[in-house]
Design a protein that fits this description.
The structure holds 2 protein chains of 2 kinds. Chain A is an all-beta fold. Helix content of chain A is 0%, strand content 51%. By secondary structure, chain B is mainly β. Chain B starts with a strand and ends with a strand. Classes of the chains: A mainly beta, B mainly beta.
């Protein structure tokens, strides 16, 4: 049972570099999410995809782009990394259309921008 | 504006000392309230979903309750392995979870 898999687990970038965080889920979920977690700030939604082919901005989308490649995969791209994007990034998925459905999370990507 | 506030921010208990964590919310059109557990260096792990006021759910030493304004996570006779950060989240449109900042629980043996 892999659940939600994120790669890489750790990454160090220089300011201005770009990278893509990968996320894949094997639960056949319709909805997928990207959150960032910072000390004292909790989990904040960056982007989400309610279903394959759709993406929407969350609370903190600036500096990020996303791609819902297919039903399984949802990637997050940093085009020009900034130190303010140093954070732990979590991908999650859930089944839509059911009342109160819970989200399942990956193990996180710890990103440092220097 | 929707808000989810958790208290206390941190809680230290002795093994066997029962207590409660609070999650208060101001959300219109609540579809569900979620509790998660997060261990250091890991992603949040789902514990409970509560749908309506008066509902209660239990799992081992944990019991979650819900009113129209807040939810409580009661921990009965905690053990050191219950040490973690407990996150509360509310779901409204499209059930997208909006999270509180969490309560860090440490249980001393």
């Amino acid at each position: 049972n892999a659940g939600v898999t994120q790669t890489p687990k750790f990454q160090v970038l220089k300011t201005g570099q770009s990278m893509t965080l990968q996320c894949a889920q094997d639960m056949n979920h319709n909805s997928m999410y990207w959150y960032r977690q910072d000390p004292g700030m909790g989990l904040r939604l960056i982007y989400y995809s309610a279903s394959e082919g759709t993406t929407d901005k969350g609370e903190v989308p600036n500096g990020y782009n996303v791609s819902r490649l297919n039903k399984r995969e949802f990637s997050l791209r940093l085009e020009s990394a900034a130190p303010s994007q140093t954070s732990v990034y979590f991908c999650a998925s859930s089944e839509r259309g059911q009342v109160g459905t819970e989200a399942f999370f990956g193990q996180g990507t710890r990103l440092t921008v220097v | 504006e929707d808000q989810v506030t958790q208290s206390p921010e941190a809680l230290r208990l002795q093994e066997g000392e029962s207590s409660s964590l609070n999650c208060s919310y101001t959300v219109s059109g609540l579809r569900g309230l979620f509790w998660y557990r997060q261990d250091p260096g890991k992603g949040p792990e789902f514990l409970f979903t509560l749908y309506s006021a008066g509902e209660e759910k239990e799992k081992e030493r944990l019991k979650a309750t819900l009113t129209k304004k807040e939810s409580f996570l009661h921990i009965t006779a905690p053990k050191p392995e219950d040490s973690a950060t407990y996150l509360c989240a509310v779901g409204k449109r499209s059930y997208i979870p909006t999270f509180g900042r969490g309560t860090s629980l440490i249980v001393h043996p």
